[in-house]
């Protein structure tokens, strides 16, 4: 396929517009959202005028990430159900019917050729709405063990794309295609090109450790790395670049400060491709 034209992120195609129109639904974590972004960019190469609209929950993370990547997003009011206690689960179940109805309205306004669910609780109402409207449904599963949402939605999908061969047995095999996990173009561009610029004559470049516990951080990884940093003998040799999530941000910053270890600590890195290039060692979930 040719490179194609840039994506046109509009809400509705005009009657004479030959665009391929796609709804990408899901989110809640970057692990669900970023593969959807990678797919959206690939559609820009495969079609002349693709239109992509994301439908996600009302979380700030989704809106910030998608706007930074130039995509339009519509929000539905939906919450996760798993492991939240009976009262919160009952409230979450109560939000599903209105979320399906709003999803139907969104889909009717766009008239998509395809609805792609990328996992996360926000994908559920959108995929159900697409099925009720008789639209083509596909799913993508990023994890080795399929998530609850994709397992529930699997009977509605025409095709299910998975990242691992072992994931095939979690679905009807005839529907499944092993594709791997879609990777964003900025990550691919930096592959094999480490950033090794010297800080200056006679200055030793620190050994840089990148810690990624997911888009919302990972509490156990945050604790383990902070504890391990305290055991280092020559702490001046190291720099820790740590994505903590919001909850542990201040505690991890304070820990590195007490230890006198060079550090860059943020709740989320939007320039993760550059961080990969700078890293000598990556610790991730």
Intertermini distance: 35 Å
Tell me about the largest β-sheet: 7 strands, parallel
Which runs of at least 5 residues are low in confidence (pLDDT < 50)? 1-16
Basic shape:
globular
DSSP, total strands: 11
The average pLDDT is: 83
Name the helix and strand elements from N-terminus to C-terminus, one letter apiece. EHEHEHEHEHEEHEHEHEHE
* Category by helix and strand content: alpha/beta
Put simply, the count of helices is: 9
Strand fraction equals 15-25%
From the alpha carbons, calculate the radius of gyration and give it in angstroms: 21 Å
Helix content: 25-40%
**Biggest sheet strand line-up:** 3-2-1-4-5-6-7
Please describe what this structure looks like:
It contains nine helices and eleven strands. The protein has helices at residues 30-46, 60-68, 86-110, 123-132, 148-153, 185-189, 219-229, 249-259, 272-278; strands spanning 21-25, 51-56, 72-75, 114-117, 137-141, 159-162, 176-178, 207-212, 238-243, 262-266, 281-284. The longest helix is centred in the middle third of the chain and has 25 residues, at 86-110. The chain starts with 20 loop residues before the first strand and ends with a strand.
């Amino acid at each position: 396929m040719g490179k194609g034209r840039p994506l046109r992120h509009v809400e509705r195609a005009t009657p004479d517009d030959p665009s391929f129109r796609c709804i990408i639904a899901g989110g809640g974590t970057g692990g669900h959202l970023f593969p959807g972004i990678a797919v959206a960019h690939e559609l820009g190469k495969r079609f002349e005028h693709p239109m992509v609209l994301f439908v996600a929950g009302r979380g700030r993370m989704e809106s910030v990430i998608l706007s930074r990547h130039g995509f339009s997003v519509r929000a539905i009011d939906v919450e996760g159900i798993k492991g939240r206690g009976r009262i919160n689960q009952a409230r979450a179940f109560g939000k599903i019917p209105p979320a399906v109805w709003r999803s139907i309205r969104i889909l009717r306004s766009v008239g998509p050729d395809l609805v792609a669910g990328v996992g996360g609780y926000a994908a559920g109402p959108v995929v159900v709405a697409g099925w009720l409207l008789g639209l083509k449904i596909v799913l993508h599963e990023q994890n080795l063990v399929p998530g609850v949402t994709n397992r529930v939605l699997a009977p509605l999908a025409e095709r299910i794309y998975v990242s691992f061969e072992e994931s095939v047995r979690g679905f009807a095999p005839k529907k499944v295609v092993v594709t791997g996990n879609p990777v964003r173009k900025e990550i691919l561009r930096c592959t094999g090109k480490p950033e090794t610029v010297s800080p200056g004559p006679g200055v030793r470049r620190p050994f840089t450790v990148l810690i990624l516990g997911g888009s919302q951080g990972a509490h156990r990884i945050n604790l383990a790395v902070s504890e391990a940093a305290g055991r280092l003998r020559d702490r001046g040799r190291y720099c820790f670049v740590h994505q903590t999530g919001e909850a542990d941000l201040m505690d991890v910053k304070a820990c590195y400060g007490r230890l006198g270890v060079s550090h860059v600590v943020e709740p989320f890195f939007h320039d993760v491709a550059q961080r990969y290039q700078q890293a000598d060692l990556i610790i991730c979930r």
